[in-house]
TrEMBL record:
<dbReference type="InterPro" id="IPR037171">
    <property type="entry name" value="NagB/RpiA_transferase-like"/>
</dbReference>
<comment type="similarity">
    <text>Belongs to the 3-oxoacid CoA-transferase subunit A family.</text>
</comment>
<protein>
    <submittedName>
        <fullName>3-oxoacid CoA-transferase subunit A</fullName>
    </submittedName>
</protein>
<dbReference type="GO" id="GO:0008410">
    <property type="term" value="F:CoA-transferase activity"/>
</dbReference>
<dbReference type="InterPro" id="IPR012792">
    <property type="entry name" value="3-oxoacid_CoA-transf_A"/>
</dbReference>
<dbReference type="InterPro" id="IPR004165">
    <property type="entry name" value="CoA_trans_fam_I"/>
</dbReference>
<dbReference type="Pfam" id="PF01144">
    <property type="entry name" value="CoA_trans"/>
</dbReference>
<keyword id="KW-0808">Transferase</keyword>
<dbReference type="InterPro" id="IPR004163">
    <property type="entry name" value="CoA_transf_BS"/>
</dbReference>
Amino acid sequence: MINKKVANVQVALSDIADNMTIMLGGFGLCGIPENSIAELVRKNVKGLTCISNNAGVDDFGLGLLLQKRQINKMISSYVGENAEFERQMLSGELDVELTPQGTLAEKCRAAQMGIPAFYTPAGYGTEVAEGKEVRVFKGKPHILEHAFDADFAIVKAWKGDEAGNLIFKGTARNFNACMAGAAKITIAEVEELVPAGELDPNEIHVPGIFVKRIFQGEKYEKRIEQRTVRTK
């Protein structure tokens, strides 16, 4: 069994360079690869194209990369919680490709499965469909969407083993599961890393064959994006 474990985040992300395309798992601030984002900030790589459901918030998640102008293009489905993102988009500093959320997930999954493209009705008749091939299936127009072509996918899991098998906790499974294996190289950071063979095969969400490198993260903040509590 191949051991995918690397010593730390610095080793895992050592070959990420300027102008690369990177997928980052998570939904809002749930299940984001906090250690890896911090390392990208430290490395100060520039000109990145980031594929992620959203762009974090101003002082956390991908918002940290936006603050340092490290992202050239964002491909996302929801970007409503980041004022700096809004400012850069409206000023023309940031190239933004808004994508329906289901289409974003399927573009990841298609890449993961080796499917080059697919047809979907989502976005037909809107700006999303501009310049794309249209075909009619059962009387309904569909647009052609291509699978993503990314250099790296960086995902975050609750638990993993040294063979790269991953288990997610709750809704942190979100985009992490469909991004694993959807790029040339997938890097997984996990809260708990165990020896190969210790995970129950029936509980594994992503098999290790999709993962190239795995490391144990540390000091997770796990911020809550919007805290809502019941009034007493």
